[in-house]
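ok so i was messing around last nite and threw this chain in just to see what happens. nothing serious, just curious
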Amino acid sequence: MEVEENTTLTTASESSIPASAAQTILPQPLQPVIPPLIVPPIAPIPVAHTHASLPVRPLVIRPPPPLFHNGEAGSSDSDDSDNDDSAHGINKGMGEYEISEESRLVRERQEKAMQELLLKRRAAALAVPTNDMAVRTRLRRLGEPITLFGEREMERRDRLRMIMAKLDAEGQLEKLLKAHEDEEAAASALKDEVEGEELQYPFYTEGSKSLLNARIDIAKYSLVRAALRLQRARRRRDDPDEDMDSEMDWALKQAASLSLDFSEIGDDRPLFGCSFSPDGKALATCSLTGAAKLWSMPKLTKISTLKGHTERATDVAYSPVHNHIATASADRTARYWNDQGSLLKTFEGHLDRLARIAFHPSGKYLGTASYDKTWRLWDIETGEELLLQEGHSRSVYGLAFHHDGSLAASCGLDALARVWDLRTGRSVLALEGHVKPVLGISFSPNGYHLATGGEDNTCRIWDLRKKKSLYTIPAHSNLISQVKFEPQEGYFLVTASYDMTAKVWSARDFKPVKTLSGHEAKVTSVDVLGDASIATVSHDRTIKLWSSNVTSEQAMDVD
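result:
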């Protein structure tokens, strides 16, 4: 601003001086005016802007070039160095240089590490035996020492893996192993020719000749019975005169009218089993004294006493074809008696006490269930043990035979029921559903229903055709000790329980029909006669006979 003021003053003074005098006076006032025109701060400003606008070069690793007082020499050196670097890079790309010793060693180490990695990958993919004897054998085949000093199993296996990987990389492993396998095959073939054929052991336990004959006999017997049952069922289905509903209604009406007919003290100790004779003229019972007794029907008069067991008797059964009796006992034996009280056969072989027993429908075979987790089939004529059947994980308690004779059903303390094919020996069904031990089991005469009862207070009805449970009956307030179908047509089911009652259930829909109350202690066994007579025995030592009040004339009125 001062410069502008000075210039205005000078111009004003100059304009005021006349032209003639200006020529003489002008040089004198110019000397003091010139110094203010040169302002010192203005001079360095363009120089500073010139240096700041120069580009900043990146930092280089090579030693810095020599600096000069003027910037031109330094810039020319840097340009020359850039040209040299570009030329050196071109030569480097063209391969016109020598690798240093250190770089060569590093490259060799990398290649070696890569080869080792590939070798380990190939070794990991090889199938190496895990058995130490097989590892030693493989090492011997490959011509390597089978063991080294201080070498353990895993180390030996790793060594075999690496050897096989190296041979595989060289392409010699398959060829070498194939040669050894051919040599061994030739040696084994020669050995077989010299020693002859080796024994071929079956995967099953081969049965005896008598068991084979028994299976053939059971198959022939069951085929005839099954054909007759199916023929009768078809006839009843197709015949308009047959009214199955009316027959079932008549049977259920008889069951609903059951009442206590006789009650008799059976023994000094609790009773444990009962069975009707095939003709219905006698009843057999057994008790914890070890004795079995025969009673005449219907007055329950004692006929004879069967003594022979040294421990408590657990069950009694009448033969379906003879008036002979079989008893089971905790002394691990079953005994076969005639109706006169004479001992005919003793079946020994079980390793623990027996539970229930049952006759095959043909009357030729006897089945026994035991706490040794097995059930066995015996030939009654010879007393020979034909079959020892395992399959339960705990004690076997109940046993029943199909009315055709082809199947057997067992139940046990493992809460499982199994159905066995006697003609082949196979377990054809495993019936799972009970949550506690199963104590009673019974086949229906219709051929396809099976009833089981157990400690879970329920009775289950199984359909053998559908292989599943059809009904679950919450039957009692305590465990069910035994179940029995009506033996003629299977129109109703009877269950005995430790709640001191026995109950009758309709086979049509398995609804309750009648409750038989009268015992003062646990009801341990029940049996059903064809004309709707039921016998029960209990821990109160009594035998109770329940009979129907419906007469034949009244039955004819049922439509």
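not much to say yet. Residues 1-35, 42-53, 66-95, 555-559 have pLDDT under 50 and may be disordered.
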